[in-house]
Write a structure and sequence with these properties.
Blueprint (H helix, E strand, L loop, with lengths): L7 H17 L15 H8 L4 H12 L1
Length: 64
């Protein structure tokens, strides 16, 4: 079994995840289902893409 030594950066990241969980009740990397309304042109473009959630997630992340 390989053990990883935690660095201060790892510990800060985990503490951030726990603070997020305390505030919202779920971890920041957990997937959530949502419903959105989009323009017909955008729908036509997304229809051709296999993994739509990754595209929408990245667009929202860039806008927020």
């Amino acid at each position: 079994m390989v053990q990883k030594i935690l660095t201060n950066k790892d510990i800060k990241k985990m503490c951030g995840w726990l603070e997020f969980y305390d505030k919202y009740g779920y971890l920041p990397f957990e997937k959530k289902k949502i419903s959105i309304t989009i323009d017909g042109d955008i729908y036509a473009k997304l229809k051709e893409i296999e993994n739509k959630s990754v595209i929408v997630n990245n667009l929202l992340r860039n806008e927020l």
